[in-house]
Amino acid sequence: MVILRKFGNSFPGYNKNEVNSFVQNVTKEYEAMLDNLKARDREIESLKNELTRYKNLEKTLNRAILIAEESTHNIKKSAIDESKVIIEDAKKNASRIINNALIKAEKVEDAANTLRNQVANYKIKYKNILENELDKIEMLDLND
Questions:
Q1: In terms of Cα–Cα distance, which of 68, 49, 72 is closest to 60?
Q2: 3-state DSSP assignment of residue 31
Q3: What is the C-alpha to C-alpha distance for residues 73 and 77, in angstroms, rounded to an integer?
Q4: What is the DSSP letter of 15?
Q5: From the CA atom positions of the chain, what is the Rg in Å?
Q6: Interval 89-106: pLDDT, tens
Q7: Do residues 24 and 30 touch, judged by C-beta distance below 8 A?
Q8: pLDDT in the model for residue 22
Q9: Given CB 3.0 to 4.6 Å as the disulfide criterion, which of 2, 78, 104, 115 pairs with 27?
Q10: Domain extent listing, the chain
Q11: Is the pLDDT of residue 7 over 60?
Q12: What is the pLDDT of residue 112?
């Protein structure tokens, strides 16, 4: 604040009331400008704080975006790796199923061959029995 200065009286000098009034006006304008500057300083400080807050928020958001991108990359990689494992397991299972089917087919074929041999042996035995019986029947005819 500016203190009002009083001028002394002098003969050829200025009017004391006018000088005091002028100085008062200057003081009021100076104080108004000073208040205005202080208000602007407070506003500038507030805006600086807000800017700092926004910069920090921007940094936080950038980090969050980077983390999200890394997470997305990791999830994709994990999904690809898991799909490879699933495909490999499916191939192994398919190979196992095919191998089991081939083994069963061989067993069925072996069983069929065994059955054919048994049928052939049965035919031979049955044919021999029939031939023996026919021989016996012919022998009966000769004895009559």
A1: 68
A2: helix
A3: 6
A4: -
A5: 58
A6: 999 999 999 999 999 999
A7: no
A8: 85
A9: 2
A10: 13-101
A11: no
A12: 95
Angstrom CA distances, 119 to 56, 112, 113, 124, stand at 92, 10, 10, 9
Q: How does residue 10 score in pLDDT terms, banded at 50, 70 and 90?
A: low
Residue written as token pair 């050829």: 12
2 in Cβ contact with 24 (< 8 Å): no
Q: How far is it, in rounded angstroms, from Cα 50 to Cα 40?
A: 15
What's the maximum distance between 2 C-alpha atoms anywhere in the chain? 195
Residue 66 identity (one-letter amino acid) = L
Average pLDDT of every residue of the chain = 89
| Chain centroid to CA 11 | 93
Query: For residue 5, what pLDDT is reported?
Result: 55
Alpha-helical (H) ranges within the chain are: 16-143
8 A C-beta contact, residue 7 and residue 13:
yes
Both tokens of residue 12? 């050829």
For residues 110, 115, 121, 125, the Cα torsion angle rounded to the nearest 10 degrees is: 160
Output DSSP code: residue 144: -
Structure confidence by residue, pLDDT tens digits, 13-32:
777 777 788 888 889 999 99
Straight-line distance from the first to the last Cα atom of the chain, in angstroms, rounded to the nearest whole number = 166
